[in-house]
Batch of 4 targets.
Target 1
Amino acid sequence: MTVTVDDRIEREVYVPAPIDRVWRVLTTPEHIRAWYAPGGCEIDPHPGGRLRFRWDEHGEFHGMVERAVPDALFRFRLALEPDHAPADPGEATLVEFALSPEGPGTRLRFAESGIRALAVPDDAKAKHAEYATLSWTSALEELAAIAAASHN
């Protein structure tokens, strides 16, 4: 049986909030806990900086920031397996958030790529893509709601 695996997940959302507010919600631990990693988050949002996302039910996932341009772009590698620092592309995917002003708000574009390059069987890649699609879609909706309601 052949398993088809998407290599890239893409989503975008309009956020009715200024770009600097969306950036803060996207990159600060107290906000990330609310929209993505309820078990906690540590982040050094600079190139080469480490990040950790925690979930009680999934464990702690490690990553490394590749690029961070305030109010524009946040890109990092995120390990496929919990409690493992990604050392090469076969162990991590590339996650990217691109922000651009749109009217009074912000257009937030998201992509996770490198799924086909993961060093796991195709069925595990397909399962990751399916789960990641659902979880990122939900997380982006939550991020947009928090940014729209936030005043700090």
Target 2
Amino acid sequence: MSTFIALLHSIVLTPDRRVIMQDLRALAEELGYREPRTLVSTGNLVFEADEMRPHELEVALEEGFEEKFGKHVDIIVRSDCTWMALCSTNPFRDGNGDQVIVRVMRLPVDPKRVEALKPLMTEGQRIAVVGGDLWIDFAGKPSQSKLLSALTTKRLGVGTMRNWNTVCGLTEMIM
């Protein structure tokens, strides 16, 4: 048995309805995963499952989510080992935990697409690709940056963002 982390790209079903974490844990149990637990109310799921490839889990979770909630949502799954590796590679540990964000990617982000983001950056902002994931230090509130709205699936590929505080919280859940 192994531990996995699943990150939902969105938990918004309609403008006035979001998936509650109790329902997300129930979905995981219905799919046969054990000990599902969530962190905050933004689609972070930790669970135990038989040894499987993360992509197989992504497919099962996405199909199960769509069947249960009527909407497709991209879900990125990492094993506990690959999550620990991601956590250990933060290039901006000197940044603020709510201002340093990683875009966890399904497939490694294309460096040319990252290069195209640089004109949107402001003074003090930093970006780096580590292990195929995109790290950003917004050096201020991400919501006030033009860079945030450019970090889309259309531009970068399938992925989802988590701030450093959440990354650390998920790491504590799997230790």
Target 3
Amino acid sequence: MVSTTERYADVAERLAEAERGNAEQIRKSAELILGVIRADALVFTAGAGHSLAAVAETFYRAGGLACVYPVYHPELLPLHGAQHSTKTERRSGLAEEVLAERAPGPDDLLVVFSTSGVNPYPVELAAGARARGASVIAVSSAASVAAAPKRAATTLIEEASIVLDSHVRPGDSSYPPDAPRTAPLSTVINAFLWNLVLAEVVDLGAAQGVDIPLWRSSNVDGGDEANAALLAKYGARVPALR
């Protein structure tokens, strides 16, 4: 049996590995986001299944980036039908339906979270965004992509401008170490990588004199007032903020 201390050390090392292995990609991702802010454009974020947890992490949360447009389709969320969500992610053509409603343009950016990165929805979403001139950041796992059965013409990693590699093991589980079958880490590492990017954005913005639009908690003094200005700025362009 692994002790709590040993388990914590293992997770901490996985996070450290993700940070070390993506240092340059984190910087480049932050530069892309800073460009979006300078252009007064939007960062679109997308995922399917449990990768939607990462999308929720990017949207309308204390300390989060305000210029985020969450790309969402209810059939992709397991809470609306677990088995159906898996089938939906594998359905070719859904991404184009979603993009037809609102797609990123040349000044925008799409961030797609998908650990396996092989199902048609995330792959076609990235390809569709690139065809419209947008840059694409993939938050995925190269090892998982390599091990997964291919269900699309390409993979998310192949379609991306920048790849943040979570290094998550195929199957996502991390425990027990010799035969992992529980304790999945993709949600933790995806959130960690996203927040590393945000920290870099703030540092770059400070160095270059760019104000970064960040939400504040509604449960601190002045939070509602600060957020009201951001809602006025982005509410008309991001329907989910209404």
Target 4
Amino acid sequence: MEDRIGAACKAAGRERDEVRLLAVTKTFPALDAALLADLGALDLAENRDQEAGEKAEAVAELRPDSGIRWHMVGSLQRNKAKSVVRWADEVQSVDSERLADALAKATRSALDSGQRDHPLDVLIQVSLDDDPKRGGTRVSELGQLAERIAHVGDIRLRGLMAVAPLGIDPVQAFEKLARASERLRADHSNAREISAGMSNDLEQAIAHGSTCVRVGTALLGGRGLASP
């Protein structure tokens, strides 16, 4: 995987350290996540709150000083906000003002109670085909949501996340995302992250400015590293 990312960066005229590898550990046990941390993969992602909370707690016991950062990349309901802020350092799937409000409220409560010691980083999930079934906010509504996040407090806007829709050329999808990111940065200079590209299309994403590739299958295979 390191070779693929490095080659993609070189082809795009970018430095390797401009692109972060986010290891998607969904369905894999805590020991596999701990082994990834041993190998230097300290950014780990989950897409289900219930599984993630238990796993993050288990990994913390296995590797208490690892410095792992956990990322929520799956669809998130507002009623899960309180739970998510207990384990996630970053939520990459914010797609509505109501969810942003819920996360901000839950983060403030967690800060006040000592469950957290830092604000929650968030990315706006962008829909690249305007299909509500896939999740994500429309590009045309991106500015309004970004302003809400910027002013609600206790959550920090870091950038955008998107998935290249099936049936659409990934190059076209990532070009659209790159343009949206450029417009966002004009008003929110710290929102520089572009989380895009997975096992099948990370090269195209890196060529169009991705700063974070989310890789599961190509990294872990069809079953866990340490699973029986």
